Input
Amino acid sequence: MPGKQLKILLAGCGDIGQRLGENLALQHECFGLRRDIKKISGPIIPLQANLTDRPQILSILNQEFDVIVATLTPDEFTELGYRRAYIDTASSLAEVLKITPKMPRLVIWVSSTGVCGENHKWVDEDSPTDPNTFSGNALLKAEQIISDLPCDTCVVRFSGIYGNTRKGILKSVLKGVGRPKLPLQWSNRIHFDDCVGTLKHLIERHASGFSLESIYIATDCEPVTQHELRKWISAQLKITLTEQPSGGPIRRRLSNKRLLDSGYVFKFPTFREGYKSLIADIIKNSPK
Output
């Protein structure tokens, strides 16, 4: 990696942004932007602002950042919540960036594989997007706004994130909830640490002079059905499951070939490695 220090703005700066900043701050100057700066800690320099407040954002972006990484989270799971978090924020950021004295070298926008449709057995970055939810539609619109910026941009679509505080399936299995073998319900997952690792990898690759693709799907190397995933976890924990139907078939399996081709090496290449570490913590902390 080149020795030049980058000035990096982590917009949103939730748990992924915080961890990313802690990693990058060993070599670069990292700023965390959010409304509640009490949640920003460690070596990250806090900046307080509302990302949809254009005068506030203009004042901050006038500080001339080399890289902006946007990791946003809606306040509520509603159409309005997603519009505010993604469409309104992307529009505000795009408008302000176009009048700042110096454009960043790179803007990375974190999105979700929720923008992908369910009409394909395998999905990659070139597959048609056909979201059928308000969340997917908002995410896709925001992606399009960011992609039109007059600087290098990169959209990263994360699949189902687990690890750190995200333990929904693990908690469900601990309650004995299984899923039937049929209809097939594919689960595409990525560990929290690989989310952070992917973003760090792309920043470093760009800084080293490599061109980034406009979109990357960030998911691990082995899609798994909900039935098999829960069966495997329950076997490690010696828990008996009761199968409970949940929704219809999910045919979509996601390919991470483009990310692998960029040189990224997964810390947790499959659900087995990722959940094994979480299960080890559960066993360690269980009453003797």
